[in-house]
C-alpha cells in the first residue's frame, strides 16, 4: 500500500474528503452569516438554530407529509426563510439603530428558545434521515471509494456558494443591497424599498443555513444540538475570512475544513483546536480577517 509521509494514501484521501464535506457546511453557514452581517450589521447567533430548523423541517416533511428529500431541499429553506422574515420584521428591525450587541443578544436568546423547544419535543438524541436512493452507494475513483452522497454535498454547496456570491456581487439587486448598507437614506431616495431589501437579506441568510441543514441531515442525523455544536466553529471561520466578506466566507470555509481534516491525520490531538489557533494568528497579523476591509 502506498503512503505519503508514512500515512496510507486511502486514509489521507478519506480525511481530505471529510475535510471537504465539513468545509462545505462551514462555507454555506459562514456565507449566510457574512451576508447578514455584511448587509444588516447583525451578528446572527440564531444561525445554528436555523441550520437545525432546516434539518428538522426536512425530517418532519418526510415523516408527516411524505415529502421526499429533493422537494425538502426547496421547501425547508423556504419555510425557515419565512420564519426568519417574521423574526426580522417583528424584532430585529427595531434594533438597527442601536448597538450591535443588542442584535447578538436577541438572536442568542432566540437560538436558546428554538433549541430548547426541539429538545423538549424530540429529546437530545439524533433522528435518522435517509439519503435519497439516487445518491446511495459509492464510486471507485481509483485511489479511493467516494460515497456518492458526500460528493453531492460538496458539489451542491459549491453551486449554492458561487450562486450567492454572483447574486450579491454581480447583479443589480446585489448592488442595491451593498449600497443600502453604505447609505440607506440615499438609496431609498431613488425609490428602492430598503426595509424590504433588509428583510429579504435576513431571509436569504437563514435559507442558506436551512439548505445546509437538509444536506447535513443524512450525514449527521437530525438533532436539536446539531446547530450549537457547529456555530462556534462557523463564527471562527467568518472571523478568519473577514466579517461581512462573501468571498472570504466561502474560501475560508473550504480551506479550513480541509486543514482540519489533514490535522486529524498528522496530529489528531490538535484537530479540535486548529481552526481557533489559525483564527488567533490571523487576528494578530490582520485584525480585519484575510478578506476583510479595515474600517
Automatic annotation (TrEMBL):
What protein family is recorded?
Answer: Belongs to the binding-protein-dependent transport system permease family. LivHM subfamily.
Checking CDD domains in the record gives: TM_PBP1_LivH_like
User: What is this protein identified as?
Assistant: Branched-chain amino acid ABC transporter permease
**Which InterPro entries has this protein been placed in?**
ABC_transp_permease, BCAA_transport_permease
Which Pfam families has this protein been placed in?
BPD_transp_2
Location in the cell = Cell membrane
**Top-level taxonomic group:** Bacteria
* Keywords for this protein: Amino-acid transport, Cell membrane, Membrane, Transmembrane, Transmembrane helix, Transport
Annotated membrane-spanning segments are 12-35, 42-62, 68-87, 99-118, 149-168, 200-220, 232-259, 265-285
User: What is the recorded membrane topology of this protein?
Assistant: Multi-pass membrane protein
